[in-house]
Amino acid sequence: MNKRGLDLIDQKILYELDLNSSQSFLDLGKKIDIPNETVAFRVKRLQKNGYIKNFVNTINVSNLNSFYYKFFFKFQKTIPVIEKQIIDYLRNYKGMAYLARLEGRYDCTCLILAQNTEDLYAFLVPFKEKFGEYILEQEILTMTSVHRFNFRFFYEGGKLLHSHYPEELLKPNLDAIDYSIVTELALNSRASLKEIAKKNNVHSNVIRYRIEKLKSAGILGNAVLDINFKKFGVEQYQIDFTLKNQNSVKKIVEYVSHLPESTFATVTLGKYDLAVEFAVRNQEALKRILDRIKIEFSNTIISQDIFQMEEYTVNWFPYRNVRIKP
């Protein structure tokens, strides 16, 4: 695969940071066997050159008594200025966890963090009042579980880290400081204890203790990378499957997890049962993967829709503007 000018050290740095983007440059240097000053220089260069968009923390929102609700929109009668207004509105919405432009059956997909239908109405009603005339179709799905596979396409031989965020809802016993920590790390997994402590007017040891508790409670997931896929010479695709048998979901997820091009799998209730995301060089590479999946699971796949994606927003816990009920 064309690494777009990245040498083996850069590839190793990216691979290790996607396993743990919060680790120190000193620890990272020891793993790669280079000085931590060199690591710091290379990471900053990867950021400057646009390979790394951000360092983020995944969040298990089901342990915060919340779901992601997945929306698909098909637009009509739009011109570029209207499309920009729609995207800007969605990007700025207070509960927006994920937003991407699509090429395929729909034009846009997004994830809204919500606890109930009241939260969904709070998003959908004002949005349709403002842009309803441009919405030809919409689809709403409940995302019941998320599987993230560490990025391996840019580092040959990388081992799989399969993170699973389950569907069981739990009511948390958290206070404002806990929510502040989760919010901060969701946006910046490399935020220092000192920075977070200062914002909350507490000692750094308090933040360290709280973070460990949030990890033990399964609320804070893995510290990972948010990257610009195009910089690596790959395109993002999402394949949404409709299945005959729900019992096959786990088998398909397990199967695709071992493909180095796979990045996410999400289980949903609604029109689609399972969505799988890949980072591939071109449509031919995607077709080869899809053919393998269809042959392996021909007895359960009813249909699939294929979307090419361009990400706009990634923030797995947009709490700073959302009221989460205890």
Would you kindly provide a written description of the structure presented here, covering whatever features stand out?
The protein is an alpha+beta fold. Among the domains are: 62-150 and 228-314, Alpha-Beta Plaits; 173-216, Arc Repressor Mutant, subunit A. It contains ten helices and eleven strands. The strands form two sheets. An eight-stranded antiparallel β-barrel has the order 2-4-3-11-8-10-9-5. α2 (25-32) packs across α3 (36-48), α6 (176-187) packs across α8 and α7 (193-200) packs across α8. The mean pLDDT is 94.
What's the SSE blueprint?
Layout: H1 8-19, H2 25-32, H3 36-48, E1 52-59, E2 67-75, H4 80-91, E3 96-103, E4 108-114, H5 117-131, E5 135-149, E6 162-165, H6 176-187, H7 193-200, H8 204-216, E7 220-227, E8 235-243, H9 249-257, E9 262-269, E10 274-280, H10 283-296, E11 301-314
Antiparallel strand pairs: 1-7, 2-4, 2-5, 3-4, 3-11, 5-6, 5-9, 8-10, 8-11, 9-10
Helix pairs in contact: 2-3, 6-8, 7-8
Please identify, by name, the CATH architecture of the domain at 62-150 and 228-314.
Answer: 2-Layer Sandwich
Helix content: 25-40%
Order of helices and strands: HHHEEHEEHEEHHHEEHEEHE
Helix and strand content put the structural class at alpha+beta
CATH fold name of the domain at 62-150 and 228-314: Alpha-Beta Plaits
Shape call: globular
